[in-house]
Amino acid sequence: MHQYPQRPRPDDQSYEEYPSQGRGGAHQDPQPYGQPHGGSYEQPPYPPQQGGGPHPHPYEQQGRPEQRGYDEGGPRYRYSEEPPGGSERPGRSRRRIWIAAVVALAVLLGGGGFAAWKLDWFSGNGEAVTFGKNPPPAATKPDAGGASAGATPSGDPDVLMPTGPKSDFKQTTKLDDGTIIAKTRVTGAKSGFEGDVWVWAPKEYDDPKYAKSGFPVLIALPGGNGFPANYWSDRSLGLQKAISEGVGAGTSLPFIVIMPVLNPDAKYYYDGSDIPGQAKMGTWIAEDVPAFTKANFRTYKSRDGWAFMGSSSGAFVGMKTVLQHPDKFKAVIASGGEIVPDSPLWKGHQAEMDANNPEKLAQKLIDTKGPEVYINFQVGTKESGKDRMVKFQQQYGKGPVKTTIRDIQNGEHNGWHYVRGMKEGSLEWISKVLKAPKPEAG
Predict the structure, then answer these.
(1) Is the bond preceding residue 47 a cis peptide, omega within 30 degrees?
(2) How many other C-beta atoms lie within 10 A of the C-beta of residue 216?
(3) Is the pTM of this model over 0.85?
(4) pLDDT tens-digit map of 56-76
(5) CA distances in angstroms from 19 to 16, 52, 359, 400, 404, listed in the order given
(6) DSSP 42
(7) What residues contact 183, with CB distance under 8 A and at least 6 apart?
């Protein structure tokens, strides 16, 4: 049995607190609404495509799409837009070429080669997926609020068994360890928004020893447009693999990873908020996505089992949501993110924007003395934005707001490097904050 990290306060750990560097202060955008959350960087070539589906392109492009004239195309494409010259996305095209090459090689190798190909991560895509193949004894029906599924078989009153109704999941990717990333369509009961959600459960989730235990949840939010896909669902970034390897090394909890779409379209950023007159993306992220997770997975009732991670604009939303709902979420890994809301859709709604401003939310939490929340900033040494993190830490990283800053050496503004930072320490950090699953004895 793996010994998961114990839960001392992360501010007691040996993470370095960084002093102020440079001018600090608020980010000065070079154009209206500036760059997408996260600042400037150099655009390197994309690493090789490894997973199914279109490449997520988790490098953030300069400028917001509505400022660049992208709409459905433009001089440079984003991962959720069509490139110039046609509707075929390069990721799909490369994938088809790659599949054709593999099939041809399998034919040359004979039946054995083809059988081996059938067993890799293409096998089963589009098929129905069931999570939790070893269900515990049936529990009583949940109460009217859906907050409990009756007696918890583990004896831990914090364990919440799936409340239902169950969603229909379809496999999108199979990982090397046999675990599955799957997708479903969710209609938010509170927001009214309908969007795709990808999910991944670690192999421990189907281990009979954990059949009566809850699992911690990590809601992973993408940067960029965050629509129509969540790039953390692409295996090429290695998020799920990093968690699995961390579980094996005893440095990570076996998180359930939930990956919702972040925005309702590819034109604007909605700051993960309920902007008046727009889709209620704040309610979608803070209420509907957790409710969907509780309906389908063994989780925890308390905030000790709930956290966010995100990059760029997703980092902002994750941090904002933790500060806004400290009774529901406890921690966030915020990578290369912005600090304040800046969607153009806030125009004319200053009060509502202030209610979604992490600086004001942090001060409110300090004034009311809790509960404690934990923010782990990640920033690459080759990207900008650290000054904003340092300023936030100096002004608001006190009392119940616990902050750390992790430098990613030679890191740029992209998902691959943020996963590397998680492997180098941020996964261990958040695993010491959240609640571990408890296996049955024996």
Answers:
(1) no
(2) 24
(3) no
(4) 445 554 333 333 222 222 222
(5) 9, 42, 19, 20, 11
(6) -
(7) 169, 170, 172, 196, 197, 198, 199, 233
